[in-house]
Amino acid sequence: MPNLYFKTIAELAVMLDAGETSSVAITQAVIDRARAVDGQVKAFLSFDVKDALKQAKASDQRRSEGKSLGLLDGIPVGIKDTLAVKDYPLCCASKILENYVSPFDATCILKLRKAGAVIWGRLNMDEFAMGSSTENSAYQTTSNPWDLEAIPGGSSGGSAAALAAGEAIATLGTDTGGSIRQPAALCGVVGMKPTYGLISRYGLVAFASSLDQVGPFARTVEDAAILMEAMLGKDPLDSTSIAPKGETGYASVLKNKKGPWKLGVPQEFFGEGIHPEIKSNIEKAVEWYKAQGCEIVNILLPHSELAVPVYYIIATAEASSNLARFDGVRYGLRSDDSKDALSVFTKSRGEGFGDEVKRRIILGTYVLSSGYYDAYYLRAQKVRRLILGDFEKAFDRVDAILTPTSPTPAFKRGERSEDPLSMYLSDIYTISVNLAGIPAISIPSGFTKSGLPIGLQIIGKAFGEADMFAVAHAFEQGHSYTRQTPNL
Ligand code: GLN
């Protein structure tokens, strides 16, 4: 029997209902596990043991009075350091927000609280969610629990690593270009990015607002569905949030839908740059679906090769505008060296932001400047529409699309940190999904010969989460990769 800290939400909910365990016992198990292994993994920037146990006690009290709030009641959920939790530090792993404490809860956090979840700790990330390895954190580098020399992926590397190491039962991350799916793939857990707008962005520190989405990391597709269900919905505090248009009730629906489905496989995703073991693993996954009676359709996403350059124009443009608010006056750090108003801005920003964030602010400012706006930003927006058009055409013919999540398994720390372009290619298979605003999930699909996890990405139609979860759940039922745990 696996330790409590490696169990799923669904399993723990049954045990809680049967009185076989308590939220305090689960939370304590996760705390003890974090104390035992986080010195090696370094997934957490901080955690508040007293507050977690207080929430757990309250959950047990509710349950004893017959007032349980449902499947998530009493479950510790780790939180990426970019989501606002009242009275907790909120730093986005940046020096510019050092010592900043959030005065309010993000909407997704409030919703988790309403579902009874225990809000647990602050998880490391790339500074302002810019990166693919969590090495851009201003505070620490996180290790991949499967190979402590390797990166966990990013930017939500802390969220993926903490879950894989058993330091939380589930976690939240954010995904602007792949930051949930890529680390999920590299750490051997499930990670999901919803349709744009399905989860409120209120209380998520903005990186690129037209791309950012909150989403769950979980041990199983069912757990991810449970978390999604708790967090989705229109929020008056985020004008881009939207009520679900398709089927919901994901956690039960995913078990009833059995296929067979029509599944698209884009040829462009298996060409140059893909690691041979990833290629053969994903081809095997495609074969598995075929053997279950699914129809495999070769599709074309001809503009996908433009996704990375388009993303780095749009995302940096939006970031340059969003990050203008960090001025040394309103939040966090103010340079001791500043002498007048202008130097408060320049010195605080100069000292507070790391290299990658500065690189992007400069690039974003450039593509928005009056002489270049039409040549870069406007053209990128047009290509973005073409990328969406490719998906729309494909979804006329198929129910979901299968691709690798990441072109390579986890690489060693330091291997790409001096080469931003090679780092940018980590998201080559995930970025077009954000540009199109559609949902996608990464699920474990096996291991390389050296024992590193591989992820299969399943892309759904806008608001097609129910089908996407069902396709993912079917694969999970036919394999045992999701329940394997690293030796730590
Ligand atoms: N790795 C991509 C980037 O660096 C995506 C990050 C994200 O999804 N937040 O921008």
Structure description:
- This protein has one domain: Amidase signature (AS) domain (Amidase signature (AS) enzymes).
- α9 links the parallel β7 and β8.
- The mean pLDDT is 96.
- α5 (157-164) packs parallel to α6 (181-187).
- It has helices at 9-17, 23-41, 49-64, 107-114, 157-164, 181-187, 221-231, 250-256, 276-291, 307-322, 341-352, 355-368, 373-397, 420-424, 431-436, 465-477, and strands at residues 44-46, 76-80, 118-123, 170-175, 190-193, 213-218, 262-266, 295-299, 400-404, 440-447, 453-459.
- With 488 residues, the chain is of the alpha/beta class.
- It is globular.
- Strands 1-3-2-4-6-5-10-11-9-7-8 form an eleven-stranded mixed beta sheet, sandwiched between helices.
- Glutamine is lined by residues 129-132, 155, 175-179, 207, 315, 427.
Question: What are the salient characteristics of this protein?
Answer:
alpha/beta; eleven-stranded mixed β-sheet; 488 residues; Amidase signature (AS) enzymes; 39% helix; binds glutamine
Shape annotation: globular
**Can you tell me the number of structural domains?**
1
Overall pLDDT, averaged?
Answer: 96
> What is the first-to-last residue Cα distance?
17 Å
What name does CATH use for the topology?
Amidase signature (AS) enzymes
DSSP strand tally? 11
Strand line-up in the sheet with most strands: 1-3-2-4-6-5-10-11-9-7-8
What is the H/E string? HHEHEHEHEHEEHHEHEHHHHEHHEEH
